[in-house]
Structure formats: C-alpha cells, structure tokens
Amino acid sequence: MFIDFIARKTSMQKALMTLIAAASLALAALPASAQVVQVQGAWARASVPGQKATGAFMTLTAPAGATLVGVSSPAAGVAEVHEMKMEGDVMKMRALPSLALPAGQAVELKPGGYHVMLLDLKAPLAKDSQVPLTLKLRDAKGAESQLDISVPVSATPPAGGMAGHEHHKH
Questions:
Q1: What ranges do the domains of the chain cover?
Q2: Which of 161, 153, 151, 136 lies closest to 36 in space, CA to CA?
Q3: Are 142 and 129 in contact (CB under 8 A)?
Q4: Which of 17, 35, 95, 164 is geometrically suited to a Cys-Cys bond with 80, CB 3.0 to 4.6 A?
Q5: Could you give the CA distance from residue 43 to residue 47 in angstroms, rounded to a whole number?
Q6: Mean pLDDT of the region 142-155
Q7: Which of the two residues, 104 and 87, has the higher pLDDT score?
Q8: Number of Cβ atoms within 10 Å of the Cβ of 93
Q9: Tens digits of per-residue pLDDT, 21-35?
Q10: Phi, psi values for residue 12, rounded to 5°
Q11: Which DSSP string corresponds to 80-136?
Q12: Class of 33-157 per CATH?
C-alpha cells in the first residue's frame, strides 16, 4: 500500500510538471500584440547639471484598451504622467492620476501635451544614454501589469520619431 501511494504521488508530480511546462510554452508563444500596451518612438529630453526635472515622450497603443496608472524610474525621485493644456491664454501643466488608452488608438505623449515628467533627478540625463522607465498599466479587465522600457536620451526628438507627428487644427 505504501509503494502504491508513492507511485501515485510520483505520477501526479509528473503530470503537474507536464502541465506547468505546457502552460509556460503557451505563454511564451503569445504574440507581441498580446502585450497590454505597445510603445513607439520613446525618448527622454537630456538635462544639464543642476536641472532637477525633464520629460519623457512616446506613443502608446493599447490593442484592447488600457489605462496608464503610474510610472517610475530609478533615475528620478518622482515620476508622474502630466498634461499641458491651454486655459484661456495661459499654458498650464498638471499631474494626472491616470491616462486612458482607448482600444487601438495611438496616444501621443509629447512636448506641450501629455508626457512623463521625471522630477528630482538623481543625476543629469546625458545625451546618447538610456533611462529606464516602468509603466504601470491596468488593462480593460482591471488586471494590473508593469512594462519596463529603456528610453534613449536626446536633446531633440529622434529622427523619424515623433517630430513628424505634429497635428494642427485648421
């Protein structure tokens, strides 16, 4: 009876290990579009010694819809999603608690609009370096996730990036 119990236990362990391996392979085979958010054209503005804040910019697309609920970076004491907009004839900037990413629609984070604000910089962001950012997301079903990205630092938007994506009202 004891040997019969051990044989069943070993058989169950093998079945469990097979199930775990199959689940791991299935998750690894998910297409890139299964990501909650796709990031394009990301860059951060270079800073100079003594400068305590700068911005990071990118285009975010959530195929199934999501919400950007936060951002962090080891390069900054505080990282926030901000909005700049005209109120009358005054440009105002404010932190947002979250930013909706409607399904399939590209949302631009760019100078003069929505952007990531990096405050209390721990060191200057040097041109041609990289800055790590963690985007905190909530998908359409309410599940939270994080997306770690490495953003190039530049004095100007990268060529072929967001510089050519300016929209004007006529």
A1: 1-30, 33-157
A2: 136
A3: no
A4: 95
A5: 13
A6: 96
A7: 104
A8: 11
A9: 444 444 443 444 357
A10: -65, -40
A11: EEEEEEEETTEEEEEEES-EEE-BT-EEEE-TTSSEEEEEEESS---TT-EEEEEEE
A12: mainly beta
